[in-house]
Amino acid sequence: MVGMMSFRRTSLRVIDLLGGSLVASCLFVFVWVTALQPNQTQAQIEELVRRVDKAQRDLAAPVTDTARQRLLLEEYREKLERLGQLPDGVDIESYFQHLSQLSDHHNLRVVRQEPLSRQIYPGLSEERYAYDVVGVFPDILAFLKSIEETDYWADVSYLKVEQRTQSKTQTGRERVASLVISLFSARTDQQAGIERNE
């Protein structure tokens, strides 16, 4: 009987231990699920959001670069199409400001600048101007070379150089260069119709 009592007490203790272990395990699982797991899940979610954002930025960068490259390509194509083509109009004021700067740079004095008759051809308009400068011959030659190197659609269509009487400087005798400068532009059919109506 004593042995039976001892066995029952041992069995009850084992059952108590197992019950206590089960309760402790359940508490641990509950704490882990409610307290620890959400933090870990939140951290994983934040990491995934960061990765998605980075992937979207990485994907957007080539798209932006491609769009930028397309714009540059269109700009270069337009420049290529315009290159070598006559302009639609002539910026006369800008051109003669440029000529004035060239004259000063080459030590020449401008003594005459006046418009001449305008010439009209099929698809082409020519604005002509008389332009006289005074200076020594080497400076006049350098000035003419500079005119030829400008980006304007202009040309010297007439040139006459005369020596001035009794006009000598330290660098040589002064000369008068009389030029006719032609400025060219495209003449559209619409412009031709307006001119005929006038």
CATH fold group of the largest domain: Alpha-Beta Plaits
Q: Structural class of the secondary elements? A: alpha+beta
CATH class of the largest domain: Alpha Beta
N-to-C SSE series?
HHEEEHEEH
In whole angstroms, how far apart are the ends?
139 Å
Number of helices: 4
The low-confidence runs, each spanning 5 or more residues with pLDDT under 50, are 1-5, 192-198
Approximate strand percentage: 25-35%
> How does the overall form come out from the CA principal axes?
elongated
Mean pLDDT: 75
CATH superfamily caption of the largest domain: Ribosomal protein S6/Translation elongation factor EF1B
Please give the CATH architecture of the largest domain. 2-Layer Sandwich
Taking Cα atoms only, what radius of gyration do you get, to the nearest Å? Answer: 46 Å
Count of the domains: 2
Brief summary of the model shown:
With 198 residues, the protein is α+β, with helices and mostly antiparallel strands. The protein is built from four helices and five strands, in the order H-H-E-E-E-H-E-E-H. It has two domains: 1-83; 92-197, 2-Layer Sandwich (Alpha-Beta Plaits), CATH 3.30.70.
Structural account:
With 198 residues, this protein is an alpha+beta fold. The protein folds into 2 domains: 83 residues; 106 residues, 2-Layer Sandwich (Alpha-Beta Plaits). It has 4 helices and 5 strands, in the order ααβββαββα. The chain is elongated. The N and C termini lie far apart (139 Å). The N terminus and C terminus are likely disordered.
